[in-house]
């Protein structure tokens, strides 16, 4: 009886994980992050490779997280991984904001005529400074 309950719970957990992961990757594809990167770098012929790499990265990231696999990369390696993760999250957030037309609507309603570049750079600097403060103080 106990083994059957554990198997059922494992099947439900695995199914839920597959559904959530599928939804997340569908969301990334719908936002057009991968296609936009391929378009901007003029490497549209390699889009299937990019999609495979994104899926593989998600799978490996989940395995490392779930099974708490230690990867000895040192301080420098951790910095590189952190930079890449930050770039990914930043690009994802900007793709979502672009899809929802957040910036054009805000700029039009706020009446910002000049300095749009400064506005966008200020957002990026503020986000970076906030992340640096958060991680340097150990909050």
Automatic annotation (TrEMBL):
Entry keyword Membrane: yes
Membrane-spanning parts: 6-35, 47-71, 77-100, 112-135
Pfam families: SpoVAB
Keywords: Membrane, Transmembrane, Transmembrane helix
Protein name: Stage V sporulation protein AB
Lineage start: Bacteria, Bacillati, Bacillota, Clostridia, Eubacteriales
């Amino acid at each position: 009886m106990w083994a059957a309950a554990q198997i059922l719970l494992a099947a439900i957990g695995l199914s839920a994980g597959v559904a959530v992961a599928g939804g997340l990757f569908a969301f990334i594809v719908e936002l057009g992050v991968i296609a936009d990167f391929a378009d901007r770098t003029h490497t549209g012929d390699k889009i299937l490779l990019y999609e495979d790499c994104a899926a593989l990265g998600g799978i490996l990231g989940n395995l490392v997280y779930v099974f708490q696999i230690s990867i000895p990369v040192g301080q420098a390696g951790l910095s590189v991984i952190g930079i890449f993760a930050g770039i990914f999250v930043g690009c994802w957030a900007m793709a979502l904001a672009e899809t929802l037309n957040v910036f054009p609507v805000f700029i039009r309603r706020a009446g910002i005529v000049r300095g749009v570049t400064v506005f966008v750079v200020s957002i990026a600097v503020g986000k970076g400074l906030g992340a640096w403060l958060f991680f340097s103080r150990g909050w």
